[in-house]
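subagent[fold] <- orchestrator: predict structure for attached chain, return tokens only, no commentary.
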Amino acid sequence: MSILFLQGSPVEPSRSAALSGFVAAELERRGVENTRLKLTDLPAHALLHARFGDPQIRAASERVAAASALVIATPVYKAAYSGLLKSFLDLLPQNGLDGKVVLPLATAGSPHHALALDYALRPVLQSMSPALVLPGVHATDSTVTKDEHGNYLLSDDIIDRLLQATDRLVYEYRALLNRRAQQVEPVPFDQVRCSV
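subagent[fold] -> orchestrator:
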């Protein structure tokens, strides 16, 4: 059981990758296993032509299915999440997030796109049957800046918000694992015995 990061930016390095990288490092610091899936590593022709049977698409879908939680990071373009992310989500089964905890992260040029997480991405994620979609973190270009070497720098406000989001993610992830560990396997009716 692990947390899988979906990186939905078509370019790297990127601001959204900087957000997800911070959360991944914080999870590692807390001893929570996580892995990363860069959607740019998937074949573009398979994504664009909805080739569900492509071996790389199948392998990526299996990684999503195996994860207990997802962190989905995307830039905001035209008031919505990236087309790359949309193409991949379209290839997942309708209930492809069944029972999972999801943390969305987004970056945009201005605060005017802050609601893109709730009005564009959240409905799509909710339609895929997750256990819980956590409140997302939205950052702007002014809060994720670059230094003279091209490295991304996160503002104190964004760091605080990412730490809060990571706290909630870890709490819900561990609660989900505990619930699964306590589940009792169903007994087929023909095997039920009762004593009087």
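orchestrator: received. Logging for downstream: Helices lie at 15-29, 44-48, 55-66, 83-91, 116-126, 156-182. Strands lie at 3-7, 34-38, 69-77, 80-81, 101-108, 132-133, 137-140, 144-146, 152-154.
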